[in-house]
Amino acid sequence: GGQWQLSLQLLREMALNKINASTTACNACISSCEKCGQWQAALVLLAVMATTLVRTDTITYNACISSCEKNRQWQLALVLLARMSSEQVVKDGITCNACISACEKSGEWLVALSLIEGMAASQIERD
Question: Residue 119 has what pLDDT?
Fold first, then answer.
């Protein structure tokens, strides 16, 4: 359960030693937070990536959105989905499925249906 804390500590150590964190290192840390239910920590790390100019990618957002989905934060998941568009980050089936699932878990069926229609229009394949 403490893997997310270890991964955050590793990123802190990298910063203290003036080692630039990579997208891959940050993604691994966000994924660790997601798997342990630490959605707030995942979102803080996403914000840190933006302020330190570490590039975000589809994997970054998928892990953050999945973290929101697992913790019934459907509105945050949709905010992240919108940010992907504004930052021109490619969405995939995982992205959309996690957003749809977040809406479903919160009883937001109309929003989920709208996302499914949007996927069809964008030709994003569902898993």
Answer: 80
